[in-house]
Amino acid sequence: MKLGAQGRVLTVTLAHSGCTNDALQRYWLNHHAHRLIKAIGKVEDSLKNQYLSESNLDLVKQTVAVLERQWLSWTLHITPTSEFEQALYTLKELQQWQANDIAAFRAKYIQYYANKYQHFFDSVEAQPLTAAQRQACIIRDDSHLLLAGAGTGKTSVMVSRAKFLVYSDVATPEQVLLLAYGSEAAKELKQRAGESFECLTFHALGMLVIAAVEGKQPQLSELTNDAKKRFRFVQDTLQVLCLQPGYKGLFEQFCIKECHIQPNLDLAEFIRSARCKAVIAHITSLLSVYKNVVALGQLTRIASQQSDLLKCLTPIIDEYQSYLDTEGAIDFEDMIAKAIAYIEADRFNVPWQHIMVDEFQDLSPIRAELLKALMKAKNKRYLFAVGDDWQSIYRFSGADITLTTQFEAHFGRVTITALDKTFRYPQDVLDISSRFVCANPHQLKKYVKSARTETGPTLQMETVECEANTLEKVLAQLNDKGEACVLLLARFHKMLPSRDELVDLQGKFKALKIRAMTFHAAKGKEAEYAVIMGLYEGHTGFPANRPIQPLMEAMLPARETFSFAEERRLFYVALTRAKRRVYLFKPQDNACRFLAELEIKSNTH
Q: What region holds the UvrD-like helicase ATP-binding domain (predicted)?
């Protein structure tokens, strides 16, 4: 029996006195067995009462390693008490745990709580939650990424999980924060979850943090709230700057190299012209992106790559910041940056233990930093992220898909699960669209089934000579079937019917509710039918193949190596809007390259 140096001396002394090794073991167990029993009891209580998260698993492994050295490094010769024997048996079991044992234990835990709270899961939403949705509510790992494809009920999970944390006495509503990408989504979460929960956008969260630290609500700049004023500010600033001989050349080169527009010789006239609107709009976008680049500490890298273009932008940035300072106001970018600084400086007491993020695939690096600051604040926190990398379509506004596809590299160890049933569109649309988007090997694989059972072709390709004529024929057929909602979708507004044409169509087909929108605007929308138009190749077609804008490109998250990766996801979004049928208008000439990949037989009109 090895009890360390002092133990061996004691053994020798007792042996000379005629005491046996068995007697020594009995003496040792009588005085110390309760320690093992107590330690194993704590481990068992932890395993019963908490989900076996990665951090909890670390603690279990550390405890087992210590107990193993103390209790399994010597041979037991006597018959112990049943309580001690059971504790020793449990220790040996835990010592031998492999990955499959851990997975099996977690699965049993999930099933136990799914059964225990069956009534809650059956009634918390209008329809009973699916098994995958229940699992998403029960798992409480340090970080949990839920992949939720189009129409799989992600909002139901966000709401149900928040309520379940309270219902199961894990948290109070005040300890739960739900973050949404846009204000409408935040309002919907608030309406469905209840007033007691904090449901915010990232900008609203930033305002809350700043107000709490500074003791008053920060003033938001008029340039932030009024797009026309922001446009005029940039326009007026350019007029003044271009009076300086040294700036004229910088601006001309900016127009040519960044915006691919050749300015007129008279810059004052050009700045007021319609041709310059695109340049000014681009600069207003760069103002926001620039401030985020500075907050992330990346300006030096950008300056080394695009110094000449940056020289044109910097004076406008300086004027813009001076305007904000004069107002005593902040903009949207300041909301995030200041909130991060206050949280990291421990000037804001983070009250939330459970942070839930919707539309995670739309997360930008600066928002990710705010999220990390929340997670690193004092006390234990849990991150629950809901997203779908297949629907990541906002790189132009700063979204970084790798925050989802490479979640662990950014946020640490993670449990990844997926919702496996869509309630929106039929199985053949699901199969074709999933295969199409996953042609990009960097997309995360998901296996989803449809809950809908539609008959007949649900993805229908029409080869068209005139889109307007074919559209009227399709709408006439749908109108005869009765009331329905129809989405007319295209990559750009110019590919869709004009407002007057839409009014005319609505007047002709009164049984239909017809809406026209771009692929981007259609995200999150659904209808019985969708008609996808403008599917032709070219500079103004789809997939969009616009010239690179070097300065903006350097400031945005790195472009993916897979060709037209985001345009592919955008088409997936369009394909998954309809509950019953999708019509694809294929031009007779120069058809979009994506159509051939769908492998659908085309009708000719």
A: 127-426
